[in-house]
Every structure is written in structure tokens, then in C-alpha cells.
Please model this.
Amino acid sequence: MKTWFLDFWREREEVLKRTNQLRLRPPQLKRLLGDSSLRPELQNARLASLLPPVGTEVFRSFTPASLQDIKQRHEAEETERQERTNKDVEKELHKQATHLEAGKPLPFILGDPPPELLNCPLEELDPFYQSQKTFIVLSEGNVLHRFNAESSCFLLDPFSRLRTFAIRILLHSLFRLLIMMTILTNCGFMMISSTWSRIAEFVFSAVYVFEVVIKILSRGFCVGRFTFLRDPWNWLDCVVVITAFLPEFLDLGKFSVLRTIPRALKIISVYPGVKSSAGALVQSVKRLAGVIIMTVLVISVWAVIGQHLYFGTLRHKCVLMLLHSNWTYDDLSSYHDNGTVSSYFDFHKFINSHENQFSLPGELDPLLCGNGSDSGLCPHGYVCLRTDTNPNYGLTNFDSFGSSLLSLIRLMTHDTWDYLLEQMMRSSGKFSVLFVLFVFCGGFCLLILVLAGVAMALVEQEKAGVTEARRTEEEFLHILDVMKKKEEEEEEEEEQEEPQEDPRSSPPCCVSVCRWSCCGCWRWLQLRINGFVMNPFFDLVIVIVLILNCILMAMQHYPMTEEFEGWYQFTSRVFTGIFTVEMLLRLVAVNPYGYFRVGWNVFDSIIVALSLVELVLVDVEGVPVAVSDLMRMLRLARWWSTFHMLMKIIWTSVWALRNLTLILLTMVFIFTVVGVQLFQDDYSDHVCRIAADCRLPRWHMNNLFQAFVLIFRILCGEWIQSMSDCMVVSSPSVCSIFFMMVLVIGHLLVLNLFLVLLLSLVGEDLVAPKEKIKNNPMIALDQIKTGVAWTRNWILEHIWTLVGKKTPIIPHHKVVDSKEDNKKDYLGLTSVTSVTSDQPLSESKALDSNHGNQTSKRTFPRVPVADAELELDIPEKEEEEQKQDEENETPRNNTPEACCCDSCYRCCPFLDIDTSQGSGRVWSNFRRVCFSIAQHKYFDAFIIFIILLSSAALVLEDDDRQMLLDMADLVFTFIFLLEMLLKWIALGFRKYFTSVWCWLDFLILAVSLMSLPLCMLGRSEVGAGLSLRTLRALRPLRALSRFQGLRLVLNTLGATCPSMCDAMLVCLFVWHVFSVLGGNLFAGKFYYCSNETELLLLPEEVNNKSDCLLLIHENFSDVSWKNTKLHFDNVAAGYWSLLQVATFNGWLEVIYSAVDARQVESQPVYESNVYMYMYFISFIIIGCFFTANLFIRLFIKSLDQLRHKFGGKHLFMTDEQKNFSISVKKKFSTKRPSVPEPHNQCQARLFDLVTKLSFEVVMVMVICLNTVTLMVETDEQSHEKERILSYIYFVFIIIFLTEFLLKIVALRQHFFCDCLNVLDFLVIFISIAGLFLPDIMEKYFIDPNILTLLRLARITRIIHLVPYTGGIRRLFLAFVMSLPALFNICLLLFLLMFTFSVFGMLSFAHVKKTAMINDMFNFETFLNSMTCMFTITTMGGWDKVLSPILNTPPDCDPDGGDCVHPTVGIVFFTSYITLSLLLVVLLYTTVVMETLNMYDAETPSDKDLQMFYETWRRFDPDTSQIIPYSQLSDFCDALQDPLRIPKPNSIRLIHMDLPLLPGDKIHCVDVLSALTARISGDGGQTHTLTARMEESFTINNVSKMSYEPISSTLQRKQEEVAAAVIQKAYRKHLLQDGGADAVPAEPAGGAAAV
Model:
């Protein structure tokens, strides 16, 4: 499969990098401009066509004579145009030069203009504009600006001094700086309220008016192409000026934001780079129009579904039962239906009173309930009744389309969706999980399409630039080639180069001073110190000291004893001294000039200086400490490549992507200021609506900083709570629009920044794996390993000498080299094969014999090759285990291998028996039978069936069925024991215990066997018996080795494991830095004094710990001084707190504690330090955003390297799944046969009617109206509205029935060939039946809600009419083709979820019900446990599920069985979150990559075939149909997309397995077939391509030559590698025998010529 997406970005980086370096030296430029003999050979080059005639200046001032020449050329062109009749030529005359567009720098071919001509009017350089009234001006940086030569505003001609002066001002850098400073100052005044604001407003308005005047004077107003109003960005200036004076005449009120937005947007328009990035973003949104339309359509349909499924369900609450004689339970239950009210009692008021509704402690909303069997129940004394209010201020409901849409968006964005799911389950039953799961799956598909769409938009934006850069590079090389030929012809001419001053002749004085070359003694000392510092062990010691320093900082905790604190301070000063000495040694070794030229040395010197300053100011109060220690930890990036990559990512976002980052920051600022201006007064005036104490909530927009923090929270994905508060205190419509804009625009910008940042360094990261350059610590470690190996071998030699035996080993260096060579040889043999590790050998051989020859009937013998397996970047031991495992599963014959290893036979000779006779023969035959049984497919199927049964038995764990389940468990254990014994006999111990999967089966079985005795003794429910019983949850993991797709995923994960572990270490290290920083900021500050009701005492009552202890001493027993569960008192606790912040679960409690903290052992005060928000914002940006980018980058890098290593093979699909993808593509690509037109005239007219596009448009409009009628339905609608809707519904039935009759008459039996027509028929039939028999249909056949869903199904017909659906269908097809990979990963995720659910059910079933553990979410049953694990998988509410598990006495009762060891809960949740997060990232990354790669999978067109033929002719001028194999790499690189394979392409060409002809030739048809199969993933098109290619050669009168292939590219590579292995082995054998001198130095590749 072609990984075109990453290949494109890799090529883009390389091409743009080379293009930016294209320069002509002054002699070359002078020759190009002055040598007339070069022009004829460059006449076809676009760049050369821009050159002026020889002998004329390139840059000429614009004069009245120039204007007269323009008029003459314009008249001549008009005359010529009237005479021309060839439209193609006319079109060619009007082609504009892309290199000379306004806003771009001058092309390199024109050189640099004289400094005196900058900012002055010049004649046009573009031939397209030379006949138009325009002139150009070049600003700093040779940026081209184009102006109209007409009079500006009919007053100022191009030569007017005023206009020239205005142009100079407009293009001057100081003018742009003035405007930027004005905008920034204006933004600053927006954030403060001052008496100077009005005066400043007049100043700002004057500057903006001055800017507009300058632009109008220099460009003109509107008449002309390059005038003021012709630039859309200048419209922004007009809006700024108009809104500046509008408040003087009108009171805008909240609409004053219209003044804020355009002024802030001017930040984007000031600098061209930011402006172009903003334009690219707008264009990407246009390209996403189809995806956006489909997303809105799908969400709207889901909202209607939710609306009709959950009408009024969230209104049911637990109401206090009345003990009134006139009211019974039936009266209360049926009140809502009959509506009767007692004359002396207001029942409606009673049930809607908040005092009469049951609420859980700490909850604002009453407890929801339902009347279903699986709905939530009310406590004793309460009854479930329908009330008038909904939860969350009445905003969370499905009673209308708007509320349902809001809830759907909440579910898709995962914003406290677990709480919404609990409400739905309580009111409607647990089937609501299915609806939420359906929404999540659909949301996942939509998100994949959006991600793929954004990525494709980025590619489409860059394609034009890359194509232009490639053409520019080709023309540059062509110009250099032409000039080189001319120079060779004119050898007598010497190239004149400008003299360059030797910098060594006169170095600056400061350089001489900083080199410290005083005397010979000093130079001698400097040389010795330099040798000491440059030694690899010096850097290794520094790295070890840095690691020890990090460990020392991790030992900080609260409270610390005086002895420990003194020891800590002393050790810290020792480290400071060590690093100071290091700096001095490096400074002396390379002198200051060489030292400060290295960036890392500058960073080290700054840290040392800060450390020394901290030592001096250690006793000064208020001076921050540990700053240098934190910075010192960053020094590890100098030697840690992955950590260095993270810092490079951060720097890239700050500098290389500064335009996109600035746009994001600008939008955040705009949203912040607009939010304050819109809602500041509303929060102040109506805060009592959302707070009983009339105190502002923590998340509000009453000031700029709080508004900024709120905007950042929305960008993190939490918006529903703040939006609900806003809708209560302000206008709901304004709040919903504002929050939705922040949510959509903000996330779109963040997504673009993330993707661009991810791909920004792809050219450096995603290259083919090469030999890594080792740094000094790695070299030192290698030397240590070598020394250890030499010492070990020396000791062994002496031991064998003392024993008196001959040494069995060779010298130490040969031992090490031998191992390395053997490993490389083994990898070399396996890396050239392309069979996955789980593929049967028979299929491998079949594939190996047919691959690459799908279109040709030519066959040839193949030489035997080594068993193929997937090469994984895993340790050598695991590789050996995997190799043995593959041998277990892909046997060559029915002959079992030896039972034991060779050492066992040497130690116990009696084990080695003769199997050719006697009992040995009987034993051998018995093993053969066992081997045949173990390898039989029915045996595997039986074991899989038993595994499924045993897993089902774990699901059914219940006290009532415990005896039956124990017996079943005994049977399963016995069966698995028989399986293990059978495999021991069949495979032998050596082969069995060298397989990872067999070890997994053995360990799981061992747990079951150990639990059996305890179960028989009745000890299975306590102690070790309970632990072993719980570990039975691992039994479903036996299925991992039985499913091929799961093994593919696990093999790939194993291959990416090293890079993932490296990324995880970097992530943990970054978190370590923030944990230490958090300890310095918050250690000991989260303690508080409270009473038994957890009510925080006010600071006026308790100021610190002493006051709290005084209250306790005064017999206030309900008062205690306690710490929060999440704190930073030590590094481990800091890690746990940061984990909750990173997953956005429980993070608000940590943030609230931080912003309320004051001093150590002081009582917290509400928001006493709000600027501590910045600590958590920094952590989310650096510790989450950038580390996630690094993690995904390394994962993509590993996948891309694996894919390139195996020739673009799928890493997550089996062969059957690949065939399924191909068949899906064929099915979607095959056009449906057209319906024949009827012969009857009446039917023919109806046929023409129903097949017209206009008819389909009308019906789609009717379907949309039908959907709108479903949207306008509400929960409590009037009878009049119901009657009107029923009439409308009847009209729609008539319309659809008419359509059905027309189509059935016109299309006849072909009507039912379309699925949509069948769906229409079913909906019409059920609708008519429900119209006449409503009671019977509702009672016996179909629910009205299901009928509503069927009516909504018609909306799918709208997709055919959306003009942008072509790209959507293509994206959707690519997504469907990636479904097999999605299925494999989801199956592994489900197995993980299943295993942890069973473990949770066995471990946490009796946990005390607090927090989120309740009657809906718990581990009591398997389904409830799966629901909990499902929410945790989405990172939703896991902190609330974990909180009850962490309870310890007295919060739980150990005797009652509701206490669990907290360590078990922490390990359980941490491991599951880590594994599930890894799989979810793998899921998203893999599916997006597969979708992008398959998006470009298409069959070559005739144009592509013609391109292939023309390129082939260049390499095969004799049209012999064959070329040498050595030219294949150049040929594939010379092709154009989509057939092109850019260099380096040797590995991919080998894996194409092309047939080789005698003389190492390859045939054109084989190459074309392989390239076509590569880009389309389908070899079925190759027969057609072969015929078309042969036809092309026949047309050119070339007879097709006959030939017989003798080998293939893959086979040839295998032969070369095998020959190299044999040669190396032979040399080693001679060296071992002392014949090293007799070994000729023959290269390994020499076997290729044999």
C-alpha cells in the first residue's frame, strides 16, 4: 500500500528546503543577464522568460516615458487581439507569472535591486502587466508590491510627490511597526478600565484613519485592480474606522464588541506571513465544506432521534409520598394523566417544590428516576413522578430539538457525558447505553473523517507550492547546465569571482581576547584539560550526576525533618559545585570563544550563574528558589535525543509556526475580550441566580483573566457547565452562539496547529532507519560493555586453563563481533521477506510464488528461501522466542522436534532414546499422533470454544450459581490441562516454553491449578484463595494467540514498543519537572480545617493550623485539620494529581485547592491566588499537548519505518481482510446498471419524470420539510399544534405515496433494485398501516418512535445532491476500506475491557456506594462493570469511580466487606488507563493513516499510462520493452504521481518482486502492473493494463518479444544476503581455526555476480 501522505510531506520538506537555497552567484547572474548566446537555449524556461533583453537594466525607474510605453503596448496588444482568431494563443498571452505575484519576494534569477531603488516606483517585470497601467515597488526583503498607474482618487498621478511619499510611508517597516504597536496598545486598553480610555480612543482612531488615508493616497480608492477596496483585508480597516465613530452617534450597548473584533483581527493583517496563514485556514475550511455539511446533517438526525426517544424522561424525580387521607398512591401516579386537583391542596405545586424532592448530599439537582424495570429507583418514602423542571437549570433535556442537539454535542465532545449517561439510565433504563454507544461510534467515524479532511486540506494547499518549487528547481538546474556547457565551450574565459576577505587575517579584538592563548604553559594545561573534558566518560559522569540531581529533587516532601532538610541543602550545594567546576573546565578547555559558540554551553552557564545567585540570596525572603534546579533537569536533552525532540517541537511551535500560533492566540484574545464585554454586567447583576450566597462562581467572565481561563477551559473540552451558568445569567441565544463559536473555531485552530506541528519535521523524522550517531555517553557505555566482555572472557579463559581443558571461546573482540554479525545476518535474511508473522507457511509459499506475477502467465522455478517472519524491533531474546513461536505454528511436516534442549541431553543422557525401534519408536509414533491432533484446525476451534465458554462462566459469577460455576471451572481447568500435556508431548518442552503465547497459557493454567486445592478446602473467598480466584479474570487473554488479527496488532505494538517506551519516559520526565515545581509551589498548602459535615471554616474563624488545633483542644470534636486527597506534598502525590489534570478528571479539585492556597499550614481563602491557574495551563500545554504530539510522532515514525521496511504492506490487516477491502472498493467503484426505458409511451414519460434531477431535488426538499416537522415537535406542545402536525404528516404520506406510485409504474420491477426505494416502500407501508390501525400497530407491531426513525432514514437521499459529496464519498470509501484494521484494534480493546471488567467485578463488587459508585454505576454485575470500563475508556469520570475504592476506615467498614486495598485500585485504574489510552491513540492514528493512504488508491488513467510510456521511452530508446535492472530506481523516480516512487526506493522496489529476465533485465508490463497494484491495492486491473500497454507498443510497430524469467528482485536479494551470510560464516570459521591470513578480502556483495 502506498504511504503517499507521509511521502508527500517528506518530499515537501526536502523540496522546499532545496528551493530556498537556490542562488546564483554574482558572476553567474552577470553572465546570464549579459550573454545573448544563452537566451536561445533558455527560451522555454519560465524563469528565463522574465529576464529583460540583453544589455538593458533589470530594474528601471517608472517615468512618464514608461507610462507612454505602456499605453503604446496596450494599443498594440488590443489591435493584435482583434486580429487573432486562435483562442489558445490568446489564453497564453494572458498568463500571469506566478513568481512575480504581489506580496512575493523576487525570484533569484533577477538578483538584488540597488539599495537606492527600494521603495521607489519601478517598471513592471512581469510581461503580463507590461501592457497594463501598473508599476511595482520593492520593499525590504525584495518583496514585490504592485500599484495602479492611474491617478489615485483622480487627483494624484504616479509621479506626484505626495503619492510617492505616501507609498514610501506605506511600505516602510516603521509604519508597519507603528500600526502594530497601536493595535497592541489598543488591545491593552481593552483589558483595563481607565479614565484615559476615552482620550486614548481618539488617539487610536486617529492612527487608524491615518493608515486608511495613506493606503488610499498610495493605491487609490476603488477604481483599478490594485486599489484600496480591491483588497478584502482593507475592508477590515474600513470597519475599524466606521465603528470607531459610530458610538458617538449611537448607543451600541453589548454590540460594542463590533469595535473590538476588527481591531484585534488587524493583528493578523499587519504582517504578510500571518495574513497568508489566515487565508490558508479559510481555504481549508472551504475544502472542508462537504465534511462540515455531513457532520451537521448527522448530528441533527441524531438529535431528532434522541428527541423522540427521550421526550420528557429527565423530568421524572423522586417526590415525597403524601400521608393524606384523600390521596392514595394511585392518585399520585395517575395525576399527570387526568389532571385533577383537590380543591384544598395544590398538588402541582407540591411535586414541583424542591423541598419535597429527594436530593443526594452535595447535589443541586434532585435525584432522577424512572418507572422501568431497569431504571433508577427512589428511596423509601418517595415515589417517581413527572415534574415540570429538567436538570441543570432546565437546560439538560431532550424535550426540544435545540436541547437535544445541545445534549448530542455534549456527548460527542465527552464533556461530563458520564453524568448525562447516568441521568438517561436512571430515567429511561440501561438501554440508554446502546444509544450513547451508537452516538460514540458515529462520532468516532465523523471525527476520523474530519481529521482526514483537515489533513487532506493541508495537502491540497501545499501541493501547488510543492509543484511550483519542483519546477523552479528543475529550471534552476537547467540554467546551471546551460551555463556550464557554455563555459566548457569558452575555455579561454576565466570566471571572475569577487575577492573575499579572509576572516583569519584580521580577527576582531574581542575574538582575540576570548581565545585565551597566552603562553606555552597555559596552552599545555589547556590541551590536557581539553583531552579530559572531551573524553566520553566525562559526559557520562555529568549525565549520571544530572540523574542523581533529579533523584535528589524527587526526594523533597512535606513535612521534612530538620536533619533531612539540612542534608538536602548540603547535597544541593555539592551538585552546584560540581556543575560550576564542569563549566570552568569546559571554559578552559575550549576558551570562551569556543565555549559560548555552543548553545548548550550558554544554557549551562546561565544555570550555573542562577545557582550561584541563589546561594547568595538563600536567606532573602521572597526570592524564588529551585529555579536553577528545575532548569538543570532540562540539560538532559543535550544527550537524550527524544527529549531533545520534544524541546525542538516546542521551539518549532514558537518560531517556525509562529504565524499559526499567533492566529490562535489572537482568536483566544478576541474571545476573551468579547466575552467580558458581552457578559461582565450580566454576571455581576444576576449572579444570585446561580449562587445561593450571591458570590461569583469560579468560572465566569467578570474580568479578563477569569474570561481567559474560561476560554482555555473550553479549548480543553469542558464547556457545558460554564455555558449553563451563562445562559441563566444572560441571554441563552447569545451564550449558545458565543460558546459554540469558541468551541468550533478554537478546536479547529488547535487541530490545525497540532497537525502542522506533527508534520513540520516529518522530513527529518520519518526517514528510513539509519545508523544512529552515538553521543559521548553512549560511546562510554559501549566501551564499558566491551571492557566487561573482555574481563569475563579473560576470567573464563583462566578458569578453563586451571581446570586443564581447552578454552572453547575465541578472543573477546571476535566474540562480540560474532554475535553482532549473526544478529545482522539473521535480520538480513528475514527483512527481505514480506510474509507476516502469523501467516501459514503454505500461504507464504503460495504468495511468494505468485506475488509480482499477477498479470503474466510466465512462471519460473524458485529457489528455496528461509522461513519468513515479521522482523520486529524488539530485544534479541524476544526475537528468538517469536522465531520459535512461529516455528510452532507453521510446521514444515508432521515430525516433532526434540523434547528438550541440547544441554538437557548432555546433562541427562538417558533422555536421548532411539526412536527407530522398540519403545522409542512407539513413543515417537505417539508424539506424531499428538502433534497431528495439536495442529488440527478442529482442535484449535474446540479450544477457542472452550475459552469462550470459560469467559462466559466468568461473566455469570453469582452466589446462586456458584456451585455450578465451580464445577464448570473444574472441567475447563481439566480441558486446558489436557491441552497443555498434549502440546508438551507434541512440541516438546523446548519448543513449548520458547513461545510467548504458550507461556501465557501455562501461567493462566497454573493460577487455575493452584486455586483448585484452596477451593476444595473452602478457602477460595479469603486470603490467597481470593487472590487466585480473582486472577482467573486473565483467562480471556488466552484468545490473543488464537485470532490472527489480534496477533498482527500485538506484533506491531511490540515493534513500536521501544519508541513508545522512550516517549513515555520523556512524558514522565516532563511530569517529574512539573511535579517538583508543584511541590515547591503547593507543598503543605492544601491543608484545611473543617467540621464533620466537610464544611470549610472561614478564615475569620480559623486562620491557620494553630487556630484549628486550638479549637480541637477546646473539645470541638467535630473539627479536624486534614489534607485534600490530591496534593503536591511529594513527587508521587504530584504525579497522581497531574494525571487527573492531564485526563481532565478531578482536575478542578486540584485547581481549586491551588488557587485557594495561601501559605504553608494556613487556612485556604476563596481564590486568594488566581494566577496559579497559569501553572496548570503551562502543564496542559507542555505536559499534555506537546508530549502527545511527540508520542504520536514517534508512533507514526515507527509505523512508517515498518511499512517501508516491508514494502508498504498492511500492518493491521490479514490477507482475508485485505481482500475484503479490495472487494469493498470494487463494489463501490462499480456503477449500478442503468434501468432500461419502458416501451410504453405513458410509462416512458413517467420514466423521464422520475429520473430527472429536478424531480429528485423536489423530493429531497419534501424530505427536508418532513424532517423539520419532526424537529419542531416538543414535549409539552398544545393540542392545536399536534393537530396541525398530524395534518402535515398526512400530506407528507400522500406525497410519498404519489412518488411511490409514479416510480413503481415507471421503473417496474427495477424499483426494488435500489435500497433507498425499498426503504421508502417500507416507510410508506408502515405509515399507512399506522394511519388506519394505530392502536394495533403500536401494541403488536412497531413502536411510534421506531416509525420516526424510519421517517428520518429518508434523509440519506440528500447526500446525492450535495455538490461537495464527491470528496466525502471518496473519504468515506477510504474509511470503509480501513474498517478491518479498525476491527482488529477494537477487538483487542474489547478483550482488554472484558478482562478488566471481570477483574473489577471480582474485586470491587462490594465497594461502598459513594461518589459515582451507585445503583447505576458499580461492579456488582458484569454489565454494570462493562459500563464502568466503557466510561473509563473515554476518560470520563474515572476519578469518581476510583474515589470509593480508595476509602479507608473509618470511611468504609472492613468487616462489612466494602473496603478494598487502595493499592489494588490504583494499579487497576492506572494500568487500564495506560493500556486503553495507548490502544485509543493507536486506533485513531492507524485509522486516519489508513484512510489517508487509501484515499489516493486509484486506478491509473490514460494520462498516467501515457506518462509512463513517455518516461519509459527515455530509458528504452530502442523500444525493446526491457531496461536494465540497475536503471529501475532512476526510472521510478522519474515518473510522476501517482506512479512515482521517489528515492530512496531500493527496499520498496525489492518488495515489488519483479521478474528478472536474462541479463538482469525487467519488462515494462511487469513494472506497470506492480506500480498499479501498489497504488490501488488491487491486482485485478493488471490484465487490462497489460493489453493496453501491448497495444501501445503495437501502434509503434514493435513486436512483443518472448522471454522466460529466470529470477525476481526479491529472490535476487535473498540470494545476495544468503551468499553474504555464507561468506561471513566461512571467514569466521577460518578465523576460529587460525586461518585468518588465508581469507581473501572479498566483498559480501560479490555473490550477486555469481
User: Anything to note?
Assistant: DSSP finds 64 helices and eleven strands in the chain. The chain has a mean pLDDT of 79. The CA atoms of residues 619 and 1062 lie 40 Å apart.
